[in-house]
Specification:
229 residues; alpha/beta; 28% strand
């Protein structure tokens, strides 16, 4: 049984339809890559999971709970942690204050987040605004982990970062996969790194799921067709 399941989901921004037929599943402890060219509905799919955008048809369930009529904060409490595109840290709060803002009791605490990202421990009293872009991304991931989720959603977590920082983020994601059993839904353009960590892949085109299978079955022909420029 899937931990997260979307079945034939549609969604709109007012009169403008954005999702036409999205289906995907994420199992417990599984890493799923959500891929597609820009503007194909990946972020809208994430917003629909969290009811930031309302699904107009289809099913959205998490651990057996129907998410379509739940407010976003209750969905988060069910065990979904989001690392949003653009990081969105609280700039005037310290690193530690950002981390504890939505913290819930569990495996992940300040000490464990600092082990994963030592820079956050070193900068615990600094404001988030004073951090580099890469450090803010680490903070956004740490903040999501502090909610002790069962599913972590990463929306473009390495976008715009320096190569050395991107590698730190990918190493942390790999650790989460291999050592914690956390389910992860990840949106990213780095196909090489996604191949190393993802169990399954889902490709969207114009708000529709057009390919879904094991990552090892993703061929060059398929990537050229749906992901190429």
């Amino acid at each position: 049984m899937s931990l997260l399941s979307l079945e034939h989901v549609t969604a709109s921004y007012g009169a403008s339809q954005a999702l036409f037929d999205v289906s995907l599943q994420v199992g417990a402890g599984e890493v799923v890559a959500l891929m597609g060219r820009n503007g194909m509905g990946k972020t809208t799919t994430i917003k629909t999971i969290l009811h930031m955008v309302s699904a107009t048809a289809g099913k959205v369930t998490f651990d057996g709970h129907d998410l379509r009529n739940l407010p976003s904060h209750k969905i988060a409490r069910l065990g979904i942690g989001l690392v949003p595109e653009g990081r969105r840290c609280f700039p005037n709060l310290s690193v530690e204050e950002n981390l504890i803002a939505a913290a819930r009791a569990g495996h992940w605490d300040l000490a464990r987040v600092s082990q994963l990202f030592p820079r956050l421990g070193e900068r615990s009293t600094q404001s988030a605004a004073s951090l580099s872009g890469g450090e803010q991304q680490m903070l956004a991931i740490g903040r999501a982990l502090m909610t002790n989720p069962r599913l972590l959603i990463l929306d473009e977590a390495t976008e715009g970062l320096a190569p050395i920082v991107r590698q730190e983020i990918w190493s942390a994601i790999a650790m989460l996969k291999h050592e914690t059993g956390l389910a992860i839904l990840v949106v990213d353009k780095s196909l090489k790194e996604l191949r190393q960590i993802a169990d399954q892949a889902v490709i969207l085109q114009r708000g529709t799921t057009v390919w879904q299978d094991k990552m090892v079955n993703l061929t060059a022909e398929t990537t050229d067709r749906y992901l190429g420029i």
